[in-house]
Each structure stands twice: as structure tokens, then as C-alpha cells.
Q: What sequence folds into this?
């Protein structure tokens, strides 16, 4: 069973717990979200696999997950980019982190200290069907418009990230 790093509101580690249990109990834990952009300024989105334990078949950022205990955030980012999207050795920069809490389906609660990373990628991902149902590049103006018109098609954390000043200001 995959473990997550439990943290306090200062992002200080206070223990570990099995991932699903942490979401059932709504306990604060570390996570990360990656946004990759091509040279045209379009963001690479993924549609989560329908079989995911929450937020299945919803569009979201390029990749998101949790660092494992004793794993650096940098290693976790590279591990999941390859595992979900088949993307290797992409340089990403830390943008910001934020804490959020939201209720999900199936009685789960997403309560995360989410580290957001931004990078560039101009290729075709080789997605893992157990993780990703679909993918596309989309320009930010039309994406923001679609999120506003159809919020039910997007993950809760992605909507928060997209409206954050660091990302909202992007007009790559």
C-alpha cells in the first residue's frame, strides 16, 4: 500500500499513512502538481482514468501525486511524470505551494499541502492507461473559459491552481 507524508499546517512532517486512509480521514498530507507547457504556451492536460479511486474521468494538470516517505520531491516529480505520462527528465521549477481541503465523491476528502511545479515539454506523451484516459494540449484562455462554463469536468485542485495568481498571470 502506498504511503503519504502527513504534515501539519507548517508543512512539517508528522508521520505517514496509507494513501486511501489519509483521504478517508481527510488528514493533511504532501502532494504535488505539475503543469507542463509547450512553446506555444499550451498546457498539457490529462484526463484521469475512470478507474482512479477518486476524480476519475476528470481533466486536470499534466501530472499530480504524492511523494513517498524518504523520497525527495524532485525524485517524486520525475517518477510520476514517467509513470503517468511516459515523460522522462523534464526540468521543472517550483512555483508555489498551497493548502486546500475539499470533499470528494465516495466519502473522501482531499486535504493537501500541494507543491506546484511548472516546466516545458514539446512532445507526445506515452500515457499509462491505468492512470490516464486521455490527454491534450490547450491554450490558457480557452481552458479558463471551459473551466468556468463546465467546472464539473475538472478536478478540484486544478481549478484552484488555475486561478492562483502565479498561474493566472501566465500568458506564455
A:
Amino acid at each position: 500500500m502506498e504511503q503519504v507524508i502527513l504534515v501539519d499546517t507548517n508543512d512539517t512532517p508528522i508521520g505517514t499513512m496509507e494513501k486511501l486512509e489519509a483521504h478517508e480521514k481527510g488528514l493533511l498530507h504532501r502532494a504535488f502538481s505539475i503543469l507542463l507547457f509547450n512553446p506555444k504556451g499550451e498546457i498539457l492536460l490529462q484526463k484521469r482514468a475512470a478507474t482512479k479511486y477518486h476524480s476519475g474521468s476528470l481533466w486536470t494538470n499534466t501530472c499530480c501525486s504524492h511523494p513517498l516517505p524518504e523520497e525527495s520531491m524532485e525524485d517524486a516529480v520525475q517518477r510520476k511524470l514517467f509513470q503517468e505520462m511516459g515523460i522522462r527528465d523534464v526540468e521543472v521549477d517550483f512555483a508555489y505551494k498551497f493548502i486546500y481541503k475539499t470533499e470528494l465523491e465516495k466519502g473522501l476528502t482531499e486535504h493537501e499541502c500541494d507543491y506546484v511545479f511548472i516546466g516545458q515539454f514539446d512532445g507526445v506523451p506515452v500515457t499509462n492507461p491505468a492512470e490516464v484516459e486521455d490527454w491534450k494540449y490547450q491554450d490558457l484562455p480557452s481552458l479558463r473559459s471551459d473551466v468556468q462554463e463546465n467546472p464539473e469536468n475538472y478536478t478540484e485542485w486544478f481549478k484552484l491552481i488555475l486561478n492562483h495568481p502565479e498561474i493566472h498571470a501566465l500568458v506564455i
About this structure: The two ends are 39 Å apart (CA to CA).
